[in-house]
Design brief:
The protein is mainly α and 247 residues long. It has helices at 2-28, 46-52, 55-66, 76-94, 98-116, 137-158, 162-170, 185-201, 218-234. It is built from 9 helices and no strands. The longest helix has 27 residues, at 2-28.
């Protein structure tokens, strides 16, 4: 399970990281690009997750494929068809591998019940625990259950074959569920937890490191900059390409 959780954060850091690099670089030239990730792991259901994950790609699929097919404004059978088509296109866009196909079908089956019950847009304009430090018990249950379903999906996505994914999932609830059996696994989980805390505190802002209010002072801002540079230098590992470069 630990490996699945760590990959879940790795792929988020990879995807959102290169997106933020592109957004920041574009702003240097006076170009404003749309926000691409909006705290997706603080979602209360799968529908909200897909509105917060890879927003530019999801928006393109919605505007140029889902809506022209009729979207949600047709009979239920066609709505189900349109949903499967949009997820099928998404999975094929990632590559011609059965793991991507199963990953897309998996998310489609999670999404369709919300769509049929008209609950797919209930969290469109709200933020979890808005104006509060901690979520309610209901919100916490929604967050953890949705995150768990997302982790299952990423395990399928990451596997090289369906057999490999099935084997991993079959051992998921064994006595090794939370066992860390590889170097630096516990340390990596601690780093992820620290980043989750930062994003949770900043979830009502546009970006996780956005500074505003009374603390928006040059000394604070530059202090954060130098701290980030120090963290990058101290924790740098072996250089690797972005995961998304393969798609």
């Amino acid at each position: 399970m630990t490996g699945g959780i760590l990959f879940t954060f790795q792929i988020y850091g990879d995807f959102s990281g290169y997106s933020n690099i592109a957004i920041g670089t574009a702003r240097l030239f006076g170009i404003n690009l749309m926000k691409n990730f909006n705290y997706p792991y603080f979602s209360r259901d799968i529908s909200e997750f897909w509105r917060r994950w890879h927003i530019s790609l999801s928006t393109w699929f919605r505007d140029y494929i889902y809506i022209p097919l009729g979207g949600s404004r047709c009979r239920k059978s066609k709505v189900i068809r349109n949903t499967f088509i949009i997820f099928a296109v998404s999975e094929l866009w990632h590559g011609a591998n059965w793991t991507f196909i199963v990953w897309g079908i998996y998310h489609a089956f999670l999404f369709i019940p919300l769509l049929l019950l008209n609950k797919n847009r209930r969290y469109t304009h709200t933020i979890v625990a808005q104006g509060k430090y901690l979520p309610s018990l209901k919100e916490a249950a929604q967050l953890f259950s949705t995150f768990f379903l997302i982790v299952i999906g990423w395990i399928i996505f990451r596997a090289n074959t369906i057999g490999e994914a099935a084997d991993y999932l079959s051992r998921l609830f064994s006595h090794t569920l939370f066992e860390v059996s590889f170097p630096y696994g516990k340390r990596a989980l601690i780093y992820c937890l620290l980043l989750v805390i930062v994003e949770w505190m900043q979830r009502e802002k546009e970006y996780g490191l956005q500074i505003g209010g009374e603390i928006d002072k040059p000394a604070v801002r530059w202090g954060i900059y130098y701290l980030l540079i120090l963290v990058i230098i101290l924790l740098q590992g072996t250089p690797a390409d972005f995961i998304y470069f393969q798609f």
